[in-house]
Structures are given as structure tokens and as C-alpha cells.
Specification:
There is one protein chain. 21% of the residues lie in helices and 44% in strands. By secondary structure, it is of the alpha/beta class. Strands 1, 2, 3, 5, 6, 7, 9, 12, 13 and 14 form a ten-stranded mixed sheet that branches. Strands 8-4-10-11 form a four-stranded mixed sheet, with no helix packed on it. A hairpin with a 4-residue loop joins β2 and β3.
Length: 241
């Protein structure tokens, strides 16, 4: 699957494969980034994890009857010029394609109350993004210049579904969704979660009063989840402003 995903990139006029099977290491973990790709016409770089599964669907829960698609996303920006760092951290952006956003994902066979496989993959991917940014930072010289946005992406063969419902309609007897909950198959979705970060935000580093709520909001990350069959479409529509 990873080979095929890379092949789609290579056939694109706007993207190129930069790294494959790239090793990374953080304080808590280590691994290999499946793919790093660069946009030829912008500063975007996607850090990609490929996940092949069989005959299953990932169901993303959205507790709202008529949710709107979102453009906002938090991405990593490395911006270095004239021996000065203008930015080295997570920043808010507006990015296309727009999509639904969810912080809850139900995967068949996953034990309730424990971290799901998607949450583990997303957490490792966020660490890999920061580790790669640190690697590139170490090799910069006084004559170097770098401006790059890092986009965490998980590509999967799982069918992606979203379920819309009113929170009050959930059964307090067994915790099940209402029978009239709406389901929709989507090509991609923003998965929002408070994930472990190796690098503190500027606010966290400078603030003398750092509360749990502030820390939670600062650690929220968004990972794009893309169905493999819609990968080419996602690439063609990608744009950051």
C-alpha cells in the first residue's frame, strides 16, 4: 500500500516524494515515517503514515445534528531566515479541502475505555512531525533558510464514516446511538485530539500560570485521515492560506 501511495505522488505534477522509511526518535518513542512528500509550488510537506486494514470501517462521531465542514487546522511551521527563527511550533491555519472534524472514533473490535489504534497512530505521527522538524533544525547553518509547513496525514484502506446525532439522544441505559442517527461515508476527515507533544508551545514556556485547561487546549492537534481511494483527490485539492 505504501508503495502505491508513493506512486500516486510521483504521478502528480504538484508533489514529489522527499523521504521514504525515514527513521525518527523522540524522548518517549521512535520509529519510521512511511513517507514525506513536498509540494512543488508551496511550502507544504506531508508526513504520512499508511495503515492497511481489511473489511472494516472507522466511524467518527459528531454530536451535532447538522455539523458544518471545517477549514481550520493546526499545523507545524518551521520558519528560519537570516540566522533567526520566526516560528518553530504549531500554528493555526485555514486549509482546503474542508472536511468534517471529530474527536471521537469508534473502531470495531477496539476495547472501550482504552486508547484506540487510531489514537496511538496519531500520537506517534505527531511525535514524528516534531522529531523531523528538530532533525532539520540541527542541520541548518547561518546561510540556510527554511520555511515549511508539516501536515500529519494517515492514509487508510478503512471506509470512513461519520455519524451525526444530538447528544441528548444517546441512551443512558446502554450508551448506544439512537436508531435515527445519520451516517455518511466521507473521503477524508479532521481527527482532533489532545496528544503528547515533545516541544512546548511559546505560551506554555512563557506563562507563569499554566492551568490544565490551557495545557489541554495547547496540546490539541489535528491529523488528517484520508481514505486511500481518495488520496489523489486530497492531494489535488490541498491548499493552505
Amino acid at each position: 500500500m505504501q508503495i502505491r501511495i508513493a506512486d500516486v505522488v510521483k504521478s502528480s505534477s504538484n508533489w514529489r516524494v522527499y523521504l521514504e522509511e525515514h527513521p525518527w526518535r523522540s524522548e518517549h518513542s521512535e520509529g519510521f515515517i512511511d513517507l514525506v512528500i513536498h509540494n512543488k509550488r508551496s511550502i507544504s510537506a506531508m508526513i504520512i503514515e499508511c495503515k492497511r486494514v481489511r473489511d472494516t470501517a472507522w466511524v467518527f462521531l459528531i454530536p451535532a445534528k447538522d455539523p458544518e465542514k471545517r477549514d481550520e487546522v493546526r499545523l507545524w511551521l518551521s520558519d528560519y531566515e537570516y540566522e533567526k527563527w520566526n516560528s518553530f511550533g504549531w500554528r493555526k491555519w485555514s486549509a482546503a479541502p474542508s472536511s468534517f472534524e471529530s474527536q471521537f472514533c469508534a473502531i470495531p473490535g477496539q476495547e472501550h475505555g482504552r486508547q484506540t489504534i487510531l489514537e496511538r497512530i496519531a500520537s506517534d505521527l505527531i511525535e514524528a512531525v516534531e522529531a523531523l522538524a528538530l532533525q532539520e533544525r540541527k542541520v541548518l547553518t547561518s546561510r540556510s533558510a527554511l520555511r515549511r509547513i508539516y501536515v500529519p496525514v494517515i492514509i487508510t484502506t478503512a471506509e470512513l464514516r461519520v455519524s451525526f446525532f444530538e447528544p441528548s439522544s444517546i441512551s443512558l441505559c446502554d450508551g448506544s446511538l439512537p436508531e435515527d442517527a445519520a451516517f455518511e461515508i466521507v473521503p477524508y476527515i479532521r481527527f482532533r485530539k489532545s496528544l503528547r507533544s515533545e516541544i512546548k508551545s511559546e505560551h506554555e514556556s512563557n506563562s507563569g500560570e499554566w492551568e490544565v485547561l490551557d495545557a489541554h487546549k495547547a496540546s490539541e492537534r489535528i491529523v488528517f485521515i484520508v481514505n486511500a481511494e481518495k488520496w489523489s483527490e486530497f492531494l489535488d485539492k490541498w491548499e493552505v492560506s
